[in-house]
Amino acid sequence: MKDITLQDTYQLFIGGEWKPASDGKTFTVTCPADGRVLAQCAEATKEDVDDAVKAAWKAFETWKNVPVNQRAAILNKIADIIDANKEHLAMVETLDNGKPIRETLNVDIPLASQHFRYFAGCIMAEEGSASILGDNMLSLILKEPIGVVGQIVPWNFPFLMAAWKLAPVLASGCCTVFKTSSTTPLSVFELARLIQDVIPAGVFNVISGSGSRSGQYMLEHPGFRKLAFTGSTDVGRNVALAAAEKLIPATLELGGKSANIFFNDCDWEMAMDGVQLGILFNQGQVCCAGSRVFVQEDIYDRFVKEAVERFNKVKVGLPWEEDTQMGSQINKGHLQKILGYVEIGKEEGAKVLCGGEAFTEDGLENGAFLRPTLLGDVTNDMRVAKEEIFGPVACIIKFKTEDEVIAMANDSEFGLGGAVWTRDINRAIRVARAVETGRMWVNTYNAIPEGAPFGGYKTSGVGRETHKVMLEHYTQTKNIMINLSEAPSGFYPVK
To answer: What's the Cα-to-Cα distance from 107 to each of 89, 90, 112, 178, 254, rounded to whole Å?
Structure first.
């Protein structure tokens, strides 16, 4: 493992200062790949959340009036700092999360930087509008920041999700109380440390702790004007209810059970790459993972045979090693949950084609490693085909016709991602339009660049991230009506 400097203890970042939890409590953060202790982190109390909200509102008094060009300059400076510390941040993310260094170095960290640059550009191009209504009424439409926002991110993409949340909130002129996952808080704390002198004190506040404690304090706090959450659908419902009780908006990026559809005319090498990319990226711990693999019957047998061969060759290993293709699951508890779903599948009649067991050889016995897994003989009504497993487990389902696979793809409570693999552009567009999901890839998977809206249909969420439309969620519309006539209305004439 490469040398890396981490703090022994990470405190809460509130009002531009590092502070311990008000009751002094901490929790331990460990590396999922080998179980070593990485750091102690402060567990935020109700009082700490309250202090963070107060600090954010104090900062908002001035931050909301900072000119757009200055906010854009700050966003670009943050991007510069991320780029300058790319190797450090990538290794922190790898140690904390267990994902391969090749992913954090080439995806998580550089994409985060790009999101800050993207939103800097967006606000520089934003304009209000003015129009004449009727004969003499001038209507001005302006956008104003909504206020202090509570933001909560998950453990699967802690740094990239932080960028998805933080870039638009800063761009819009809002302030935030930002809660990390208690499982993977370190990269966000490191980011706060690196940019603490760039963002005015109180604009960006970072707390940590369990969802049931620190997170719940945020949901209960009356001081937020908006909530933004990424995580499971079950928790997302609680966030939505908390927002509804306060009559404030919430954006939610939630779970999925996405369809990865392969037609008989697909490019074979791209298809084999695509089935792996869809379910093995980030160890399958991706909300839009291509976990339902629909294969047209003409190519089913060949597809299964070759997919199994390629899955068995995937290099599972220590995440900081450059040749590792798949790292550790987030922890041993989650590993057991995934293995539990494999057993459920077997009980339902599914066949384990490859994997389906923990990987404990080659020095991996202290981690939470799983062999890449494919389940065959799956039908669309099985639990393994309906429920989010959140691991490197794909269900292969045979289909005959285009209409049949569209119907099966849509037979789900979720609608976040999906893909279609074909050389027929007309078919690709038909299927992409027909599948009820917020993002459909064509001949690729898990591409998540800035500038393209990402979010879910149905129980997969509310709102869209990674696109300028997110600024709408962090602002409110102000209308100013100016009477250009110099005469009274005439409704109350002098008699």
So the answer is: 12, 9, 8, 22, 21
Q: What is the mean pLDDT of residues 125-130?
A: 92
Q: Are 260 and 418 in contact (CB under 8 A)?
A: yes
- The reply to whether 60 falls in a domain is yes
Assess whether 253 carries a catalytic annotation: yes
SS3 50: helix
Residue 143 lies in a domain: yes
Residue matched to tokens 């789900």:
412
Residue type, 286: V
CATH code assigned at 60: 3.40.605.10
- Let me know whether 298 and 233 are in one domain: no
Q: How many CA atoms lie within 13 A of 462 on its CB side?
A: 14
Q: Is residue 451 assigned to a domain? A: no
Give me the catalytic one of 93, 103, 190, 253: 253
Let me know: does 140 contact 271? Beta carbons within 8 Å.
Answer: no
Query: Could you give the CA distance from residue 76 to residue 364 in angstroms, rounded to a whole number?
Result: 40
**How many domains does the structure of the chain reveal?**
2
173 in any annotated domain: yes
Name the residue range of residue 400's domain.
259-442
**Residue 148 DSSP class:** E
pLDDT at 128: 87
What tens digit of pLDDT does each residue of 326-355 get? 999 999 999 999 999 999 999 999 999 999
Q: Which of 41, 122, 266, 287 is catalytic?
A: 287
Three-state DSSP class for 201? coil
Residue among 431, 419, 420, 417 at smallest CA distance from 460: 417
Q: Is 287 a catalytic residue?
A: yes
Residue 57: closest CA among 143, 118, 146, 162? 146
Residues 117, 233: one domain? yes
Nearest Cα residue to 465 out of 233, 212, 163, 258: 163
Q: What is the DSSP track for 399-415? A: E-SHHHHHHHHHSSSEE
